[in-house]
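1st attempt posting a full record on here, be nice pls
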Amino acid sequence: MCTGRCSKCIGITLFPLAACAIVSNILLYFPNGQVLQINEITDLVWFFHGILGAGILVILPASMMLGAGGAGCCANRCGMLLSVILSVLGFAGGVYCAAISSLGLIWGPLCNMGDGEYLYPFRNDTLEENYLFNQTTWVICKEPENIILWNTILFSILLAIGVVEAILCFIQVINGLTGFICGTCMRKRKANISGM
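the predicted structure (as tokens):
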């Protein structure tokens, strides 16, 4: 397979993933569709891991990959080298999103436990006592309604997106290095050799 075509396929795949990450991160600001005060939103949401990490930092290499994959083959080796550099940036964004999402899942949401004060009731739990494995503890959070389910689903989506994006960007790093070192399209090289 031509390294340029591989770049194009990866780039096309990364765009909807980045869009989903941005939307998921934005939804974390509105638990259960409610508008909350800034101090009532889980602190890890403010790290912009879906908007910046799995969103913008992945859209940049995805755009370059589409350019590198234009017309079936990359126009030159410099384009592939640039796609490698940007893919490392996308890889970092995916890893950043996965790391923050993991912390969001482990630490749990900020919620009102019925006394009007917003706290993190699950931050001191060990992994064995984690709220994710004991759904009976979910009743502790009274407001916002269904905050634990909301955060669990969205942080899980962002974790999965971050991991997939990191894997795809890593594949593109290898693909781009191959295109830079060996040339971008083997078919063209074979045609030139056989024509001599």
